[in-house]
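Homework help board

Subject: predicted structure for assignment chain

Our instructor gave us this sequence and asked us to write out the predicted structure in token form, then describe one feature. I got the tokens but I'm not sure how to describe them. Can anyone check?
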Amino acid sequence: MGLLSKKDAKLITDPLADNNPITIQVLGICSALAITAELEASIVMSISVLFVLGVGNVVISLMRNIIPSKIRIIVQLVVVATLVIIVDLVLKAFAYELSKTLSVFVGLIITNCIIMGRFEAFALGNGPWKSFLDGIGNAAGYGVILIIVGFFRELFGSGTLLGIPVLGDPIEKTGLYATGYENNGFMLLSPMALIVVGIIIWVQRTKNKELIED
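My token output:
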């Protein structure tokens, strides 16, 4: 018998594809627009949300029977704010330059609809293990989209990946630039992130017709 039952495994796999929080539920769009101009920032934001949602879901699940319903939203905000502060302090301690790049967007994890939605819709009604899997699955689904968008925006907008030139030198005109290729500055603007997300949604619905709304 495997570590995860089929039902438990679906808590992780469903958000990666057919129930993705960004492309299907259309949540967490703001950060997808704001910080995906660089792949590194996309990866760090994805890991941050993975930590906050995974741990937060477990904490809320453990407290679910003692949280008065009238103040449950306040309790959820306190939990997520505490975890976000931890993430912010870790980034400032070990990746200060990146923390400045992400700046206010790390703090906005507190209001991320995906996190509050999973607290309210799942963690309050399920045990810690299932809540952990649900948190990891939804955070991973969110992170996959951020990383894909960050990959293409940095590659075609700056000609780099993780800050490393991969298409050649645009000044010396080496590599792909020797053929006349130029970086597309529009890829670095927020509207392009929305277009890339739209293309991903289109591809996803093309592959799975059941996702197309009537």
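Reply (TA_rk): Your tokens look well-formed. For the description, you could write something like this. The chain has a mean pLDDT of 86. That's the kind of observation they're looking for.
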